[in-house]
Amino acid sequence: MPRGDSEQVRYCARLSYLWLKFSLIVYSTVFWLIGALVLSVGIYAEVERQKYKTLESAFLAPAIILILLGVIMFIVSFIGVLASLRDNLCLLQAFMYILGICLIIELIGGVVALIFRNQTIDLLNDNIRRGIENYYDDLDFKNIMDFVQKEFKCCGGEDYRDWSKNQYHDCNAPGPLACGVPYTCCVRNTTEVINTMCGYRTIDKERLSVQDVIYVRGCTNAVLIWFMDNYTIMAGLLLGILLPQLLRPKTLEPDLTVPGMHPASAFALPLPWRLCAQMSARPALGFIWSDVACLVRGPRPPLIKRLSPS
């Protein structure tokens, strides 16, 4: 068999390239759609927040955080989708480095949060107290706090006494809300008539005397306990985000690496790096449909001039 036909057969048999490319397309497309969804929700929440002229603090405005996160996810994932579809080496390299930077930031943030666990919890509690001070002025924070208190069966940040920071719930304030907590802090009983004032005059009482009426544990600890109880789900989500960046498929062949690279080095490359390496070592045929057609029709003379061997 002529050398050209032999090389064409070998090229058509390299399924690992298609596997890497399809994997990267699916991975990028999923996060691209998630980024678009997060961005849409953030924009909608910000429009609603502006209607009520709520706070402008970035921390106390989750809509701003959602918008920033959605923009980053949308742009980065779009670069990945475009790079993988067009076999654009420059875009793929940019996507590769951006993913690397994001991965480093995530790891550093996680390690710092674990090392300074107590300080992180104190920081969260302080920010929740600041949000409680403006509970009735910030629609975003109010909706989130109500949801967390209801679903996680908790009250306040550190405990239910955090609600004394609010001017309406302070024990020295006038009105029916004084020294009480919102209805979402109340222990709900489906057999009884709903009493929206069930948290009346509870802040100044001891935990044991009100634990049957309201939730006394703080939401920070409640959320942390939920994460620890559902560590398998969280580990699965974390792997779903990080694994495609570090995946090492067994189908990768030594001859698909960059010329001059040791075969073992290819297995140490994350997904975008390996695809980038393979693209630099093979003719760029354009869209993926050319590769699919090559596998379907079988070997045939190459459409473009083959790279000269080094």
From TrEMBL:
CDD domains: penumbra_like_LEL. It holds the Pfam family Tetraspanin. The keyword RNA-binding does not apply. GO terms for molecular function: enzyme binding. The chain crosses the membrane at residues 24-47, 59-82, 94-116. InterPro entries: Tetraspanin/Peripherin, Tetraspanin_EC2_sf. It is found in: Cell membrane; Late endosome membrane. The keyword Magnesium does not apply. GO terms for cellular component: late endosome membrane; plasma membrane. Keywords: Cell membrane, Disulfide bond, Endosome, Glycoprotein, Membrane, Transmembrane, Transmembrane helix. GO terms for biological process: protein maturation. It is a multi-pass membrane protein. Part of TspanC8 subgroup, composed of 6 members that interact with the transmembrane metalloprotease ADAM10. This interaction is required for ADAM10 exit from the endoplasmic reticulum and for enzymatic maturation and trafficking to the cell surface as well as substrate specificity. Different TspanC8/ADAM10 complexes have distinct substrates. Promotes ADAM10-mediated cleavage of CDH2. Negatively regulates ligand-induced Notch activity probably by regulating ADAM10 activity. Belongs to the tetraspanin (TM4SF) family. Interacts with ADAM10; the interaction influences ADAM10 substrate specificity, endocytosis and turnover. This is Tetraspanin-15. It comes from Canis lupus familiaris (Dog).
